Amino acid sequence: MSSSIRIVLVDTTHPGNIGAVARAMKNMALDDLALVRPVSFPHAEATARASGADDVLLRARVWQTLGEAIADCGLIVGATARQRQQHWMVLEPRAAAARIQLESASRSVAVLFGSERVGLTNDELGQCHWLIRIPANPEYESLNLAMAAQLVCYELYLARGASLPGAEREVPLATATEMQRFYEQLERVMIEVDFNDRTESGAHLMNRLRRLFNRAEPDQNEINILRGLFTAVQGKRRKAGGS
Question: 197-211 burial, b for 16+ CB within 10 Å, e for fewer?
Fold first, then answer.
């Protein structure tokens, strides 16, 4: 987990939101949570909403002032829902996360979230170097505190280079030779069933089919199934022709 990025919740009124933020943090490998003047903490609802992130709650530190919570941080970033902030640089979460990740390599970074009702006050914003704003539907931009924290924590996780593990194939992809044999048999079947290329040049259909099957990335079993189907079609036609 990363200890150089601190999530700071200021004047949180609902203990459930504290627990939900702790859960979001643990999902995204963050564990440094600071609480400034929470209305009620610790609280059973916070523990319930943490859903297994109890360790993040247990480590959470409670402060009476924002200055104390961020005293050892070299970069302070605030989350805001306000559309116009003339005195600060405002970044969307992905760009902000990239900068935070870069800065966190050499100094501690605090990411601030204000109260559910009013967000960060002007005085609290005044302690920030720049701000994060999450783009949303202009007709309904209100995000729950925990939802906003989850989005920012997710982008921080991606910025640290996280990615889904590559899926291991049970069966190898069909080789170029196997694909060529498949295309040759496909073309023979098309001729046998009079499925003709009706384009003007008469040369586009097979190329389109090649692109279709190349995009599908069939494995060896799948190609064998298709070739078996073609063989069955050819066998039926031969029997019909013979009778």
Answer: eeeeeeeeeeeeeee
